[in-house]
Structures are given as C-alpha cells and as structure tokens.
Amino acid sequence: MTSLSLPISIDDLLRGRSVEWERIEYKRGWNPENILHSICAFANDFHNLGGGYIIVGVEEKDGRPVLPPRELIPTKLMRFKRKY
Q1: Which helix (H) or strand (E) element contains residue 55?
Q2: Which domain holds residue 50?
Q3: What is the pLDDT along the chain (84 residues), one digit of tens a residue?
C-alpha cells in the first residue's frame, strides 16, 4: 500500500488551525453514501475554496471534532474497499 502525504498535518485538521471549518467534514464511521455526498459537495466548490478534507473515524458535535478519534476497524474498511 502506498502512503500519500497530506499538505497539512492530521493534527492541524483536527484542531482547525490551517483550514477553514467549511472545508473539513468529520465522519464518525465509514458510510459510503454519506461520504460520497461530502465528496460531491467539495467538488462543486461554489466558493472556490479548493475542495476540502473528510476525516473518517472522528465524530463531530456542532461542527467540531469530538476527540479522541474513534478506532476504525481495518477489516471493515477492506470489506467496503472491495465492495466499492
């Protein structure tokens, strides 16, 4: 598996230090339909913000992350990866 580096650190994304909150979506778990909706919203980019970030495994409350992040179970992720 190849690792892709982000131009911003995960810690900065979780704390909202380098990216506006409108460009960050937190998803509690892996729900493909829900995540696809977020991808489409970022792709439309009406305000020309340059897309956004979707953080899976982090619950949100009032638009802010609930820390610590939840654990993602690798076997469940592999099942979804094969399905989609």
Answers
A1: strand 53-56
A2: 10-83
A3: 555 666 778 788 887 665 657 788 888 888 889 999 999 888 887 777 677 888 888 888 887 888 877 766 666 666 655 655
